[in-house]
């Protein structure tokens, strides 16, 4: 039975699920890679079962790079992803999956209006791809337990992986994406329920009320 006209025309975009994130030179810390990669695989299986197209993205870097080096084990797709069916494959060299690739054209050609982002990292390639997608007119859903972050320390300060992941997901939910767990997303596919979206204003008002309480 065809989906109602109000239902999103989705594609699942699986971003950079590569071995360097699995205990390699850029090991995901929060949520842990071993937990989140299982959810990426679950999302891929659920998408395939629901007739949702799957796009797999791979980050490419020069052979001398410490991460994602062309031809290296760390740069290869993780076996959980590499062995699953996909409808389109994209190699990229910058954070956004849209920059310098055919992703937008492929999505338009397949009449996709909503991308569902899973993969790594929450605060870098996911964030860049999501903001880019919104600016091009796509709606976005983000699977927060099918992604993860690493800690950073630089001249601007320090942030733990947990802090980075938590703050970015809150920011995304305020404007750029519907943020939900993989199980919640799969339930939306089964029931036709649309995931919750929010606004900058409403998010700010709740924070002010919370602070005043």
Global Rg: 17 Å
In which range does the helix fraction lie? 25-40%
Mean of residue pLDDT? 96
Gross morphology: globular
What is the third-level CATH name, the topology?
Answer: Rossmann fold
- Total beta strands: 8
Low-confidence spans: 1-5
- CATH H-level superfamily title: Isochorismatase-like
Q: How would a crystallographer describe the biggest sheet? A: 6 strands, parallel
InterPro entries: Isochorismatase-like_dom, Isochorismatase-like_hydrls, Isochorismatase-like_sf
Domain Isochorismatase-like: 11-161
Keywords: Hydrolase
Pfam families: Isochorismatase (PF00857)
Can you offer a commentary on this structure?
Strand 4 (114-119), helix 4 and strand 5 (139-143) form a beta-alpha-beta unit. 38% of the residues lie in helices and 18% in strands. It has one domain: Isochorismatase-like (Rossmann fold, 3-Layer(aba) Sandwich). The protein contains 7 helices and 8 strands, in the order E-H-E-H-E-H-E-H-E-E-E-H-E-H-H. Mean pLDDT is 96; it is low at 1-5. The chain has helices at 33-49, 79-82, 103-109, 122-135, 161-176, 182-191, 200-212; strands at residues 10-15, 53-59, 88-92, 114-119, 139-143, 152-154, 157-159, 178-180. It is an alpha/beta fold and 213 residues long.
